[in-house]
Specification:
7 strands; alpha+beta; 124 residues; extended
Length: 124
């Protein structure tokens, strides 16, 4: 996966930085092997927010291959968070800081299998 840098007019400035597929696999297994979604409602009293959690669902990753297919087909977005060195030998050189994956909640079942859910009640 390549990090592409564009100017304000969407002109490609650089396409040098990249992430190896095995690094992507390791990152995915570390961060997304399991997932939990929690629903809550918020109540504000006396300028304080309080939350009442009423639903949890726990999922497990279906497969890395499924992740790649969904990434290629645009169901999953992947962003590389990068930073530029401001001093030293590597000044003005970009460094990979982190990978961020996002998927629309309506598509979670394409990547994850639900293994458990609990609903204690509906919000009041």
């Amino acid at each position: 996966m390549f990090l592409c840098i564009y100017d304000l007019n969407d002109n490609l400035l650089e396409r040098k930085s990249f992430v190896y597929i095995d690094s992507l696999y390791n990152h995915l297994c570390l961060k997304l092997k399991k997932l939990a979604t929690i629903k809550a409602f918020k109540k504000k009293t006396d300028n304080y927010n309080s939350f009442r959690y009423y639903y949890i669902a726990i999922y497990k990753l279906i497969s890395f291959e499924r992740f790649i297919v969904l990434l290629q087909n645009g169901y999953i977005n992947a962003s590389i968070i990068a930073r530029m060195n401001k001093s030293g030998v590597d000044v003005a050189r970009y460094r990979n800081k982190n990978l961020v994956f996002s998927i629309n909640k309506k598509n979670i079942n394409l990547l994850f299998e639900k293994v458990y859910s609990y609903n204690c009640d509906y919000p009041r």
